[in-house]
Amino acid sequence: MRLEEELGLPPIINASGSVTRLGGAPMPPGVLEAFHGAASFCVPLDQLQGVASLRIAEATGTEAGLVTSGASAALTLGAAAMLTGYDIGRMEQLPRAEGFAHEFVVAREQRNGYDHAVRAAGVRLVEVGFNEIVAGSGVRRTETWEVAAAFGPRTAGVLYVYSDDSRPPLQEVVDAAHAHGLPVLVDAAGELPPRRNLRAIAATGADLVAFSGGKALRGPQSTGILCGRRDLIGPAAVQMLDVDDHPALWSPPPHLIDKTRLAGLPRQGIGRGFKVSKEEIAALLAALRLFLSGAYDRDLPRFHQCLEAVVQGLEGLPIRCRVLDPADGESPPLLEIAVDEKAVGRTAMEICRRLRAGLPPVYVGHAALAQGKLLVHPLHLDVDQARLLARRVAEEIRAASRSS
Ligand SMILES: *Cc1c(COP(=O)(O)O)cnc(C)c1O
């Protein structure tokens, strides 16, 4: 019996990409093999994370790394590490951070729902700057001097949410923060590919960088990477790993956790709920290796084929199709279907709702509905599913045109 039948859930067509809501990215066979392989042996998790640290450090050009339960967990752990360092009294106190510096400066225009993960560690975010272009009130965005002007005795770090278009430029923010002896935590969850971002973001000197493991890396959905300074990765690891051991027996790998800097063995930390299994760690490392090898680039022709099949299936309808093909040669193409809402008599939002409610449920990308556009991401599609998706979209458009 197929698993979907046993669970009583119909399989869906996922044209939304690697989103968490729909289960993330498909894991390639090599990643699943690593997952299965790890299930058949036991290993001290701190030692496995020690191996992961070396691999991640090599892949990112940083000193150390940690496999986390997603980029969100990496942000909480990274923020916690910046608040506590190796101070176990502070670790015990989190998320209450009174009594020591616990403010992070952030550009107001970079605020987003995921920064709850940073606040969860006990950080208070201090917003600076404006995006006067979006506000329609001017020509400038947040500038580096505004970040620096907010630094004070309560500042513990800077949160930076990375994208190609982020302002102020990361390098300037890192330089300004370091001039004040402050660390920078970068949320780069969805910034892979391109492969070069694995190194380029940390190469600015950013102290900690968080990536998702379950997006384009195609590791387990519930994994992520935190990489950067060894003296911060150590405290992050301590606050995540199970530390129910005798201080005299506990011997974590010294390149991951510097036991000599701890006044004792801390209790279970703020990240204890973010545990990562040995299977997930092994699978994430396999995914990282595949991603680095360029193996995923071989899927690009299939992605284009799928989007072409959708375009063909929609010919003659009151819509406009456009394939957006990122110039980096690594990122998947995306199909934008602009619905002529007047001619169709139905909004893109309504079509999207009906696609989800049909059989099979079809989940198209929903980021541009306000502009009357459906998006098709090919990561989870094969050509048959692409044709079926086109048929469902065409049905909803024709049904609307008939009834109006
Ligand atoms: C996806 C995302 C996250 C969360 O990543 P997970 O790996 O799902 O925890 C955080 N920040 C940004 C900007 C994201 O896009």
Would you write up a description of this structure?
39% of the residues lie in helices and 14% in strands. The chain has 16 helices and 12 strands. The strands form 3 sheets. It has a 7-stranded mixed beta sheet with strand order 2-8-7-6-5-3-4, sandwiched between helices. A 3-stranded antiparallel beta sheet has the order 9-10-12. Strand 3, helix 6 and strand 4 form a beta-alpha-beta unit. The protein is globular, with a radius of gyration of 23 Å. It starts with a helix and ends with a helix. The model has no long low-confidence stretch (mean pLDDT 96). Bound molecules: pyridoxal-5'-phosphate (PLP). Pyridoxal-5'-phosphate binds next to helix 4.
In a nutshell, what does this entry contain?
The protein is an alpha/beta fold and 404 residues long. It has helices at residues 3-7, 29-39, 45-60, 71-84, 88-93, 116-119, 132-135, 144-149, 170-179, 197-203, 230-238, 278-293, 300-313, 341-344, 348-357, 383-403, and strands at residues 13-15, 64-68, 103-107, 124-128, 155-161, 184-187, 208-212, 224-228, 319-324, 334-339, 362-364, 373-376.
- State the share of residues found in helices, binned by percent: 25-40%
Low-confidence stretches: none
Strand fraction:
5-15%
Q: Major sheet: order of its strands?
A: 2-8-7-6-5-3-4
Strands, count: 12
The molecules bound to the chains, other than polymers, are: pyridoxal-5'-phosphate
Largest sheet: 7 strands, mixed
Distance between the terminal alpha carbons, to the nearest Å?
A: 43 Å
Question: Mean pLDDT, as a whole number?
Answer: 96
Order of helices and strands: HEHHEHHEHEHHEHEHEEHHHEEHHEEH
Compute the number of helices.
16
Rg over CA atoms, rounded to whole Å, is: 23 Å
Silhouette: globular
Structural class by sheet pairing and helices: alpha/beta
